Amino acid sequence: MSKADNMLSILWMLRSGRKVTAHQIADELEIHVRTVYRCIDSLCASGAPIIADSGPNGGFRILGHFAESPLLFDAEEQKALVHASIFAKETGYPFTDVLQRAIDKLKRYTNEKQLHQMERHSSGLSVLQPPVHEEQRSLLQMLETSSAHGQTLKMIYSNGREGGTVSRDFDPYSIIHWKGQWYAAGYCRLRQEIRNFRVDRIIGLEMTDQHFERPADFSARDALLGALLPDPGNHEPLITVVIQGHEHVLNELSQHWLFGHALVKRLPGEAHFQLGSSSLTAYVPYFLLPYGKSLHILEPASLVLKLSEITTDMAHHYEQMITAMTNNEG
Questions:
Q1: Minimal CB count within 10 Å: which of 114, 188, 277, 279?
Q2: CA–CA separation, 329 vs 323, rounded Å?
C-alpha cells in the first residue's frame, strides 16, 4: 500500500477506540514498525490528535472527541455504502473485488457497535439478479477502463443470427446497466454513428493505439432509450392502441419503458397509448403475450392479428414437439 493508504488505515484503527501498539499496527497492515512511526508522525503533523502512552499497557490512542467525530463516514453513511455494495455486486459491477476490499476495510477499522449495526443492515437487504459470468465481468472492466482513458477498442460482436460476427472499432463512452442487462454505448467507427451493444454478445475486445474524446453533451441514458423509443423527429405515423384489463396489469404497462412513454389517456380499466407503426410488429406483441387473457385489446385490429399469428405459430411449434415425443415413445 502507499503511504497515504497506510496513514488512512492507521487512522481507522485508532478511530475504533482501541489502544494499539506500533507492533500491532505493523502486524495488522503487514508493514515495518519504522513505517508505522513515520506514518504516525505525518498524521500528527496533519493535525490528528494522536497520543502515545508509554509503559506495559502503553500504545497509541486518539482523543475521544476526534474519534467520535464523523471523520469519514457516520453510521448512516456506512449503512448506505454497504447496501450500495450489495446492489453493485448482484448487478455484475465489474470491480466487485475492489469494492469488497473497501467494505472490508470499512468494517475492519470501525468500533464494535458500528460493526454490529453494519452487519445487521447488510443482512437485511437482498437483491436478486441473473448471475454475471466472469468473462462478461472482464469485458466490462475493459470497457470501463477504455472509456475512462479514451482508448478505442477493436470489438468482435455477435449479430445474433446463426453465430455471425462483425469486427469493428468502437469508442466506448459508457457502460449501462438496464433491465438486468449490461450495455456499452459509444461511437461505432464501422457505422459512423452512436450505437448500443449488449455486453453479453461481445465475443472479444482488444485495445488499439487510437484514442477518442467523449462528447461533453453525451448522455448514456438518451443514447440507449433513444434507440428504443420512437424518434419524435421522424414522421412515422402513430397508431392508437386501446387496452382493457385489470388495474394491476394496466399499471405495469404504464410503467413499462415503451408503453409509459406512449401513454396518452388512462381510464378505469382502460389505457390508451400512441405507438409507432414499426413497434407494433417489432416489440409490442411480445411484450403483451405474457399477460395472456388478463387484457383485452380494443384496437387496432392489426395488433390482434399479429398476436394471433404469433400464438398460432407457437402452438404449431409445440404440437410438433408433442408429435415427435409420441413417435419416439412408440
A1: 277
A2: 10
143-156: pLDDT as tens digits: 999 999 999 999 99
Q: Is the peptide bond before 300 cis (omega within 30 degrees of 0)?
A: yes
Q: Are strands 202-211 and 151-158 parallel, antiparallel or unpaired?
A: antiparallel
Output the pTM of the full model: 0.65
Q: How many whole angstroms separate alpha carbon 167 and alpha carbon 202?
A: 10
**Which residues have CB under 8 Å from 12's CB, separation 6+?**
72, 105, 108, 109, 110
Which residues does 175 contact at the CB level (< 8 Å), separation at least 6?
94, 140, 143, 144, 147, 182, 183, 184, 185, 199
- What is the CA 2 to chain-centroid distance, rounded? 29
d(CA 129, CA 182): 12
C-alpha grid cell, residue 143: 470497457
The C-alpha cell at 183 is 450495455
- Look at residues 61, 78, 57, 82 and name the one whose alpha carbon lies nearest to residue 11: 61
Cell for 212? 477518442
CA pair distance 153, 146, nearest whole angstrom: 7
How far apart (Å, rounded) are the C-alpha atoms in residues 15 and 78?
15
Pairing of strands 270-276, 165-178: unpaired
Query: HEC states along 275-290?
Result: EEHHHHHHCHHHHHHH
